[in-house]
Design a protein that fits this description.
- This protein has three domains: 155 residues, no CATH class; 137 residues, no CATH class; 179 residues, 3-Layer(aba) Sandwich (Protein Transport Mog1p, Chain A).
- Helices cover 54% and strands 17% of the residues.
- It has 17 helices and 14 strands.
- It has a seven-stranded antiparallel sheet with strand order 6-7-8-13-11-10-9.
- The termini are far apart.
- The C terminus is likely disordered.
Length: 533
Amino acid sequence: MNVALSPAEHLRKAPAIWLWWGAAAVCFLWARAIDQWRVEWTINAQYAYGWGVPFLACYLFWKRWQDRPAVPSIASEPRRLGCRLLFGAACFLFLPVRLIEVANPDWRLVSWAYLFLGLLATLSFLAMRGGLRWAAHFTAPLVLLATAVPWPTPLEQRLTQGLMRAVAGITVELLHWGGIPAAQQGNVLILANGPLGINQACSGVRSFQATLMAAVFLGELWRLQIGRRLWLIVIGTLAAFSFNVVRTFFLAWTNAAGGAGALLAWHDPAGYVVLGLTLIVLFGTAHLLQRRNAKADRSRTINAGDAACSFANPLSARRWTLYFAGWLVLAEVATMAWYRSHERNYVRQPAWEIAWPAEAGWVFQPIPEEIQLVLRFNEGKFAHAKAEAGQWWVYAFRWAPGRASAQLARNHTPTICLPASGLQLEADLGAGVLRIGALDLPYRKYVFERGPEKFYAFFCLWEERLPRVQAAGAVEDMSRRSRLQAVVEGRRHLGQQVVEVVIESRESADGAEKQFQRMLQKMIHARPAVDKT
């Protein structure tokens, strides 16, 4: 005689396979998120600390697991349905996010979308397993992962450039008190023996985000109250800023007294000292803020005999989680199929190369090692010249096809690099197209200023292959519409070339643009296009 089993009794008889499928789906989403973030962690020293954040988050999760709340009784039907819907939404939204990511791997909005999906899937899965108390209990370790996500570019630029200018301004005052003549131009200190960029003297200002991560980690490690965690973040930020002012003053003083050689000798050791002192202040502050709470009673160990699931029907739970996990696999396959099917319509654009002028006045300079490490280009040259009515700086880079090539190419735009050298963006003059034989070269134009000086920047980003339907020479404006259009066209980045020209000129913007066009007419040689689908 067969007797019907209750849900709890069924779980005693059969393994909760749905838990494994659900956990696999959650891990898959986090793996995709980390795969998206790792490129920025690798090419951007500002986020290099991100490599350690997943391990720290896992450690904090394990610590939370030791005193997790007891599993509640079986939840009501509305709560079960809500958990399923949230978990399913995270899985289904993976497909559009993945499609957008492949076409726009440099778009930081995608990085934050992955964070949202990971948080939504994890918290809803935990709520299915142990109720809302579990979701709340494990939230803090997940928040730590948010500190490793690259910030939106406008916010990041405003913050870092503002901090650099503030450091430069304070350092100038300190140098004056020390009897050393100095002036500030944006992020640059003008000393008697030459300019000193804050991106050189105080790259430690990048420690702001790393300090934020360390403060969040220590606050959770010692289970501080929310208010005390905020105080820890504030104190850590002030410490990082103050130590960076001291470091900048020291390096500027060293440069004024001993020259560039002394600066190079002390640059890295000073950075390590700043980092060490900031961490010491953080640890000391966290220790002082730590509350002496009685140890919480550990929850009982959960075994197969407990009501281990908030679902009333474990077979239904297993079926739903299996569907969601299968959808993630299907979404990954569908994404690759979408782009491969569109690549049949790709054509190779006209190939071109730069023939650098042989006349006197052009000086080739080595590309700084830190720029090489950040951009990781396959080919690159930098030249400086005095031409016509002003000075020229010309950068030329090429990246072979690869997933990160788009991110690397766009990491050297004028709006990112020139402010770090003390220039301020005055205007974005939009797009233009330069006709060179059969080649239509798109570019964007900007105006920067430094005091009374005007600098005109021209940035050309060239993709080596495009869909047949896209016009050659079309300017990619990086708007949301343009990025989504790339998804519709199934366009992946398959190799880029960049030419960036900066002209210091007394002429108008139109005059500088004509100079730029005349020079590139001489420098760029187009070769016949090869149609390879």
